Amino acid sequence: MTFYLIASVAALGGLLFGYDTGVISGALIFIRHVMSLSPTMQGVVVSIALAGAAIGAALVGYLSDRAGRRRVILGAGLLFIAGAIISAVAQSVVVLVIGRFFVGLAIGVASMLTPLYLAEISPARDRGAIVSLNQLCITAGILLSYLVGYALASATGGWRWMLALGAVPGIVLSAGMLVLPESPRWLAGHGRVPDAQSVLQRLRGAANVSHELATLRQDIAREDRKLTSAWELLAPRLRRPLIIGVGLAMFQQITGINTVIYFAPIIFQSAGLSSAATSILATAGVGAVNVIMTVVSIRLIDRLGRRQLLYWSLGGMAVTLFVLSGAFFAGTSGELAWIAVISVAAYVGFFAIGLGPVFWLLIAEIFPLALRGRAMSLATVANWGFNLIVSATFLNLVGALGSTGAFLIYGVLSLVALAFVATTVPETKGRSLEQIEAALDAGTSQNLPSAQARPL
User: Which residue of 154, 277, 279, 429 has the lowest C-beta tally within 10 Å?
Assistant: First the structure.
């Protein structure tokens, strides 16, 4: 099995993440009527999956550090299958909420562990693109959920099929993980260096892996001289990486992306697109932009670097949010409705080229091997926690301030995020995970410019 096939199967965790994240936006249009949901209960149906994701992300770091990356991803696939089936057959809000909670647990596991696994199996020169396969699968899953929603919008009980189809990629992921190798870095970290060497050779084909294995051994020797308990997360050497990871986790959410992913059809209906099918189709167009710009990001992330893409991303997000706010201020009918649609599409495009994939890539790069799972878990919990807060309050925020005020706030927060990136986030392009760890340990994280990087 070639490296890229292995990476593609593992990235299916991202597809499931995206599908189950996006499918609720189309299904909710029908569920809210079938089950007579108030705005608050609509928020609960959406946010319960986010609560599950936060819990899943909190547990997965410890589990993956102890049991291995591969086994835990396999468990996530099984959770996706169970959650999809329970949600689809639900006859009451309580059962639906239980199913969505199981889906959320699986999303939390996949959201952290898929990019971690991809980072640990990738060579330094291609790591950005390979890890970003996860984000591409997320966006493809979201687009797929929108297209499924549109196709089933007029079907009787179509929302049930929308939710049930999430089980299909879950089955593929679970089957695939039965034959995929364990992370060579996890194997080496648990004293299984010969197994790590065997997996590296399998991943790299005919390439000589001796230098990569020697670097990995040096990293393990350095970690063996330090504490590796959970309390080490509070050590000074983890302070800066945690600020970067948790800070980006927060800004990825409070700039409003998932209000669009979860509530796009409702936003478009409020902007003047009265038909549910038309709103879902417009949302699918936004999903297509998301996929296309993620592909662009994959092509650029190992060339331009992480910081450059974040600058373009956050600056563009701020501008398009201000335009969207202005469109709602001016009115919600006719041509103005399509200005809102175009603004949302552009906003999602700017998110997809930078903040979307770069956050998941950076948290897979900046933490030391011995604590990588638990530290990434903490950043991912923060991500889902802020996702939960933003999504659960969005409809009420719109009710209090109007769409104009809500999107204006998200635009201002995008500018704050831009300042955070400029002052805090280092460039990691072209460095091996071990080189990044050594530089951060030495307190030289500001001196990781791409021009000086030497890929393995």
Answer: 154
CB–CB of 156/34 below 8 Å? no
What does the alpha-carbon distance between residue 143 and residue 291 come to, in Å, rounded to a whole number? 7
We report the CATH number of the domain holding residue 40 as: 1.20.1250.20
- Residue 155 gets the label, from left (phi > 0), alpha (psi -120 to 50) or beta, of beta
pTM of the model: 0.73
Q: Which residues contact 363 (CB under 8 A, 6 or more apart)?
A: 115, 245, 248, 249, 375, 376, 379, 380
Q: What is the pLDDT of residue 232?
A: 63
The pLDDT of residue 79: 92
Distant-in-sequence, close-in-space partners of 405: CB < 8 Å, separation ≥ 6: 325, 397
pLDDT at 275: 62
Asked if residue 171 is part of any domain, the answer here is yes
Ranking 199-203, 387-391, 431-435 by mean pLDDT, the lowest is: 431-435
Please answer whether residues 30 and 149 qualify as being in contact, where contact means their C-beta atoms are separated by less than 8 angstroms: no
Asked if 61 and 378 count as a contact pair (C-beta separation under 8 A), the reply is yes
Phi and psi at residue 301, to the nearest 5°: -65, -30
What's the domain range around 255? 3-180+226-452
